[in-house]
Automatic annotation (TrEMBL):
It holds the Pfam family B3. The lineage of its organism: Eukaryota, Viridiplantae, Streptophyta, Embryophyta, Tracheophyta. It comes from Oryza glumipatula. The keyword Transcription regulation applies. It is found in: Nucleus. SUPFAM superfamilies: DNA-binding pseudobarrel domain. Its main location: nucleus. GO terms for molecular function: DNA binding. This is TF-B3 domain-containing protein. Coiled coil: none annotated.
Amino acid sequence: MEQDRIYFTKEFSQKYIQPLMEGKKTINIQVQTAGNDSTTMVLHVSTDGRCSLKKGWTNFAVQNNIHLQSICIFHFYKAAHI
């Protein structure tokens, strides 16, 4: 894997991701593929307004055979507090 993180566009980040971050610039999140265990990653808002997944992305991508130019679909949601 040549890329150590994945970036989301500024528009996508501002509309869908940042509202879930409650004003924080960096949060830990759980990422998983269907039927597999989750992995903790860091979701970060950069100074240009884009969000990126890092610290764990490379291993996750390798383990799930995700490579450059792969198409990934993400579902972002805030889990209810139990």
